[in-house]
TrEMBL record, chain A:
Species of origin: Levilactobacillus suantsaii
Protein name stated in the entry: Aspartyl/glutamyl-tRNA(Asn/Gln) amidotransferase subunit C
Record's catalysed reaction(s): L-glutamyl-tRNA(Gln) + L-glutamine + ATP + H2O = L-glutaminyl-tRNA(Gln) + L-glutamate + ADP + phosphate + H(+); L-aspartyl-tRNA(Asn) + L-glutamine + ATP + H2O = L-asparaginyl-tRNA(Asn) + L-glutamate + ADP + phosphate + 2 H(+)
InterPro entries reported for this sequence: Asp/Glu-ADT_sf_sub_c (IPR036113), GatC (IPR003837)
SUPFAM superfamilies cross-referenced by the UniProt entry: Glu-tRNAGln amidotransferase C subunit
Subunit structure: Heterotrimer of A, B and C subunits.
Function: Allows the formation of correctly charged Asn-tRNA(Asn) or Gln-tRNA(Gln) through the transamidation of misacylated Asp-tRNA(Asn) or Glu-tRNA(Gln) in organisms which lack either or both of asparaginyl-tRNA or glutaminyl-tRNA synthetases. The reaction takes place in the presence of glutamine and ATP through an activated phospho-Asp-tRNA(Asn) or phospho-Glu-tRNA(Gln).
Primary gene name: gatC
Family the entry assigns: Belongs to the GatC family.
Keywords on record: ATP-binding, Ligase, Nucleotide-binding, Protein biosynthesis, Transferase
EC number assigned by the record: 6.3.5.-
One Pfam family per UniProt: GatC
From TrEMBL, chain B:
Oligomeric and partner information: Heterotrimer of A, B and C subunits.
Record field: catalytic activity: L-glutamyl-tRNA(Gln) + L-glutamine + ATP + H2O = L-glutaminyl-tRNA(Gln) + L-glutamate + ADP + phosphate + H(+)
UniProt keyword list: ATP-binding, Ligase, Nucleotide-binding, Protein biosynthesis, Transferase
Positions of the Amidase domain: 24-465
HAMAP family reported in the protein's UniProt record: GatA (MF_00120)
Catalytic residues in the record: K77, S152, S176
Protein name (database record): Glutamyl-tRNA(Gln) amidotransferase subunit A
Transmembrane segments: none
Function: Allows the formation of correctly charged Gln-tRNA(Gln) through the transamidation of misacylated Glu-tRNA(Gln) in organisms which lack glutaminyl-tRNA synthetase. The reaction takes place in the presence of glutamine and ATP through an activated gamma-phospho-Glu-tRNA(Gln).
GO CC terms: glutamyl-tRNA(Gln) amidotransferase complex
Gene name as annotated: gatA
Entry's Gene Ontology BP terms: translation
């Protein structure tokens, strides 16, 4: 294995991505990512001196509009999709873990 | 009622003449789905009651000449949001999700009085080329149920190919309409980036995603695209260019005389199956006989498309999929003790392995210290690939090539090896990077499985692709073959 990315780096990237993997999953994922990143490195063969990056291919540029809030009258329907809701609010678990104080 | 061989125009004529009613057609569609789908598993969700009620309403109002799609059933890929109907994107994380609005394309087809019968299976969040990455079921190829239907719009392609619906919508980020269309022997169009509003398409790679049409014939496809295309204030990347009546240009007089076609040598290179190669060379000969010229051309940076694409699409996906955090909608893990737990556990339990792999690749490519080497480099290579296409299309009307290196492969054969899966997209991906229109249509068979060919055009010139596709169809028999399991045969 060329070691373009190691197990510790994979764990770091997982933290950034808010994902977690078991040890077995990390064992499988690390060489897969390493392989694919190896493919990514083939781009080094392309001379991109003085080439501008392309981030979008739309023919529309800088379309502006007023930032106006609209009431679609759907807050009830939206809340039905929330995993947990009460009295018009989305419920989440306690954010501050008091046991750590 | 057998309408497997009817095109949209003849269904429309029968509806206007009241030879059939929309309700009869819709009921026949559901009867047929119930008989066929147990073998194919194309659908994730059916809405029979609403569809029949809607068809009845359409019948009562009457269908006039100027409503070419009214009363005709269709299916939507399940990453297009449909109000009050389940929309999962093939993911456990959206298993119980019911959108509060319709995607723009859904609104447009509702306004055209089409009858939506259900939602079709896909690779989770449209990430994959076999529909095996769906969290819910494995869809089978309409021609051989041991083969994959392609993907990610595999459900839409198999539903159309097996005669369950005359038309379906799909989405295409790196080939997800064209490749399953090819694997199932149907017609699939990925329009120019900006031609169709993406509002209500669950985002994967926003600079690459495009919604398109899947049908059994070229003319049907053209009719459908005119109905869904156009500027939309809800998607400011949509173009303000006028939308032609594409189907009106497809007549007995349509021809390809004098057209210049480019055949990139890289599209017939190593890795492309011999039968596929022969079918494309035969198609080139057909076009020559019909009065077009076909030149060998070169896309010298084509082989870098896969790497550039997987960096760009995964980066965009890792950003787009941050919204799935277990708070406002979607799956939330049980037994969580802190806010960070909600995020991490909900995402880790809700997303499947391929989606996680892409999020990891994207997060890596965008992370501090790696951004310049990966994401920025890929964005520059994208410019180089775009320029390769521009150079050819300056003096060629369109580019001809295969859609995929092989025909449909065995279910289970590639899903464990992401690298093999990614390399299969080598012929479709560059078109998304360049934002060009690409049309996939039947061009042959290999061991009983359909071969697709791809026509790639200039921005907003879908019209030339439809004309060339239509002429090819008029002069070949591939599109007349239908799978033996066939919905209604």
């Amino acid at each position: 294995m060329a070691n373009r990315i190691n197990r510790e780096q994979v764990k770091h990237v997982a933290e950034l991505a808010k994902l977690e993997f078991t040890d077995d999953q990390l064992d499988a994922l690390t060489p897969q990512l390493d392989d694919i990143i190896g493919l990514f490195e083939s781009l080094g063969e392309v001379d991109t001196t003085n080439v501008e990056p392309t981030s979008s291919v739309t023919d529309q540029l800088n379309v502006m509009r007023d930032d106006v809030a609209e009431d679609w009258g759907q807050s009830h329907a939206l809340l039905k999709n929330a995993p947990d809701a009460a009295r018009g609010y989305i419920k989440v678990p306690t954010i501050i873990d008091e046991s750590e104080d | 009622m057998n309408y497997f061989k009817s095109d949209l125009a003849s269904l429309h004529a029968d509806l206007v003449a009241k030879k059939i009613s929309s309700k009869e057609l819709t009921q026949a569609t559901f009867d047929n789905i119930k008989a066929t789908d147990p073998k194919i598993s194309a659908f994730l969700h059916l809405n029979e009651d609403q569809a029949l009620a809607q068809a009845e309403k359409i019948d009562q109002a009457g269908i006039s000449d100027d409503q070419p799609l009214a009363g005709i059933p269709l299916a939507f890929k399940d990453n297009l949001v449909t109000k009050d109907e389940p929309t999962t994107a093939g993911s456990k994380i959206l298993e119980n999700f019911k959108p509060v609005y319709d995607a723009t394309v859904v609104q447009k087809l509702n306004a055209a009085k089409m009858v939506a019968v259900g939602k079709t299976n896909l690779d989770e969040f449209a990430m994959g080329g076999s529909t095996e990455n769906s969290a819910f079921k494995t869809t089978k190829n309409a021609w051989d149920q041991t083969k994959v239907p392609g993907g990610s719009s595999g459900g839409s392609a198999a539903a159309v190919a097996s005669g369950m619906v005359p038309a379906a919508l799909g989405s295409d980020t790196g080939g997800s309409i064209r490749q399953p269309a090819a694997f199932n022997g149907v017609v699939g169009m990925k329009p120019t980036y900006g031609r169709v509003s993406r509002w209500g398409l669950i985002a994967f790679g926003s600079s690459l995603d495009e919604i398109g049409t899947m049908t059994r014939g070229v003319k049907d496809n053209a009719t459908m695209l005119s109905a869904i295309a156009g500027h939309d204030a809800h998607d400011l990347t949509t173009s303000t260019q006028p939308v032609p009546n594409f189907a009106a240009d497809l007549t007995a007089a349509t021809n390809v005389k004098g057209l210049r076609i480019g055949l990139p040598k890289e599209f017939l290179a190593e890795g492309v199956n011999d039968d596929v190669k022969q079918a494309i060379l035969a198609a080139a000969d057909t076009y020559r006989k019909l009065g077009a010229t076909v030149d060998e051309v070169s896309l010298p940076h084509n082989k870098y498309g896969v790497a550039a694409y997987y960096i760009i699409s995964s980066s965009e996906a890792s950003s787009n999929l941050q919204r799935f955090d277990g708070i406002r909608y979607g799956y939330r893990a049980n037994d969580v003790k802190s806010l960070d737990d909600v995020y991490v556990k909900s995402r880790s339990e809700g997303f499947g392995p391929e989606v996680k792999r892409r999020i990891m690749l994207g997060t890596f490519s965008l992370s501090a210290g790696f951004y310049d080497a990966y994401f920025l480099k890929a964005a520059k290579v994208r410019t180089v690939i775009l320029n390769d296409f521009k150079a050819i299309l300056k003096d060629h009307d369109f580019i001809l090539g295969p859609v995929a290196p092989t025909t449909a492969y065995n279910i289970g054969s590639e899903v464990t090896d992401p690298m093999t899966m990614y390399m299969n997209d080598i012929l479709t991906i560059p078109v998304n990077l360049a934002g060009l229109p690409g049309l996939s249509l039947p061009a042959g068979f290999s061991q009983g499985l359909p071969i697709g060919m791809q026509l790639i055009g200039r921005p907003f010139d879908e019209s030339t692709l439809y004309k060339a596709g239509y002429v090819f169809e008029q002069n070949t028999e591939f599109h007349n073959q239908i799978p033996t399991l066939g919905g209604q045969n």
